[in-house]
Design goal:
Elements: H1 2-14, E1 20-23, H2 29-41, E2 45-49, H3 62-74, E3 84-90, E4 93-100, E5 109-111, E6 117-123, E7 126-129, H4 132-142, H5 154-166, H6 171-178, H7 182-194, E8 198-203, E9 206-211
Parallel strand pairs: 1-2
Antiparallel strand pairs: 2-4, 3-4, 5-6, 6-7, 8-9
Length: about 220
């Protein structure tokens, strides 16, 4: 029991981030499905249900909350998301731990506020709707597609130079400075993501493309 308490308190002390999210309770399975899909699509993660944003333990009714999680994972996530769970009792309060691994069967979508199914990704401690290029990269990566073709033409050079000079670039700026169509921009970005040249981040609530951590830019 003491080991269990120590584990959860240490986990909570980490604070919310890329791999950890706190939920006071679950009132909407559709909403929680977005968190599950974001974890599954990105790097996996843990939901601690019964924990407030300020890291205090509220406690929950584990049977009811688990039922909501099942609905989120098996009904409102497409395709279904697999998870495992643990129930912790801390000072008489129940905390439900939900663990989601990075998925190889996705990408996974969940309904937005209007009921439209979208794909989500996790950036730091927030879930965002994934851009089309990233979704297509996920799909091809999970199919183990090999032999991605990328021509290092003037468009690719402009993208690389822009990121090198300004740290990031948006899809709209790529279209603006190159004059290419939205479809062509998505194809180029998809291939650069698959080749680990680029990665996705969020800056000022806007999706931006940056160099992948293992990519070495050479002008």
């Amino acid at each position: 029991m003491q080991q269990q308490r120590h584990y959860i308190l240490n986990k909570i002390s980490e604070g919310e981030g890329l791999h950890l999210d706190f939920k006071h309770s679950i009132g909407d399975s559709k909403k929680i499905a977005r968190s599950l899909s974001a974890f599954a699509n990105t790097e996996g993660g843990t939901l601690l249900i019964g924990v407030r944003d300020n890291k205090s333990i509220a406690g929950i009714n584990s049977d009811e909350e688990y039922y909501m999680i099942e609905n989120a994972a098996y009904i409102y996530s497409k395709p279904q998301i697999q998870f495992n769970h643990k129930i912790h009792n801390i000072s008489g309060k129940t905390v439900l731990e939900i663990n989601v691994l990075k998925s190889n069967s996705g990408p996974h979508s969940a309904p937005d506020e209007n009921g439209i199914y979208r794909y989500y990704l996790r950036v730091k401690d927030t879930n965002y709707v994934a851009p089309h290029a990233l979704v297509e990269a996920w799909k091809l990566r999970n199919k183990n597609i090999k032999g991605i073709k990328l021509i290092f033409d003037s468009v690719v050079e402009l993208i690389l130079n822009e990121i090198n000079e300004n740290s990031s670039i948006s899809k709209s700026k790529i279209q603006r400075i190159t004059g290419i169509s939205s479809k062509k921009a998505d194809i180029i970005l998809r291939n650069m993501l698959l080749m680990n040249i680029l990665d996705v981040t969020v800056i000022e609530n806007s999706i931006k493309y940056i160099f992948h951590k293992n990519y070495e830019y050479r002008k």
